[in-house]
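hey so u asked for the seq, here:
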Amino acid sequence: MGKKAVVLLSGGADSATALACAKRDGFEPYALTIDYGQRHRAELAMAQKQAARFGAKRLLLNADLRPIGGSALTADIDVPSGRSAGEMADGIPVTYVPARNTIFLSLALGWAESLGAGDIYIGVNALDYSGYPDCRPEYIEAFEAMARLATKMGVEGKTAIKIHTPLIGLTKAEIFRLGHSLGVDFSLTHSCYSPAPDGKACGRCDSCLIRLKGFKEAGIDDPLDYAVRK
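ran it, structure tokens below
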């Protein structure tokens, strides 16, 4: 293996594929999973399984964002269900968690610096996504520039800081094909924002609908168990 890289690993399909990309690129992966009080906690167990599958050292951090609220994922706000593609594309949805990727990348940056690693992988996507502002290329570029100004390794210039976003310009179908080719076991991922009490994905939230559409367009069977599947 080559240099170390911190990978933000939520347990969803995109982050699992990002982890596989880091391994493909020759990095020794350090998987960072953050328990932020999300209602879809099934993803945490999946992150542990993905880290083990790809031989990544894993750190689970608690950063409870529920007191901040402002999101259907962390507060008592209904998760949108059964929306059309047009409705999903109209504005920033209530499942946006305020400043989540900024918080997550900051924690990843801190761990990376302590490891002497300048490389961070995050599975953000700017095409088939739900309109989150912190998934855009210009945001990643701005964070990368900030990281070079705000860290010892950036100021001293001994370690180059790079935020890797291997999925940012891909469709969901392309992400699933890529993950499949890199050995991602998608049965060990969870994408639902509002899972049933028995753990089944709802099949109707934005995340489920985007995932199902992506697998269908990729020509790959989605192995996840859904309460409702169209």
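The first strand starts at residue 4 and ends at 8. The chain has one domain: 4-218.
lmk if thats what u needed
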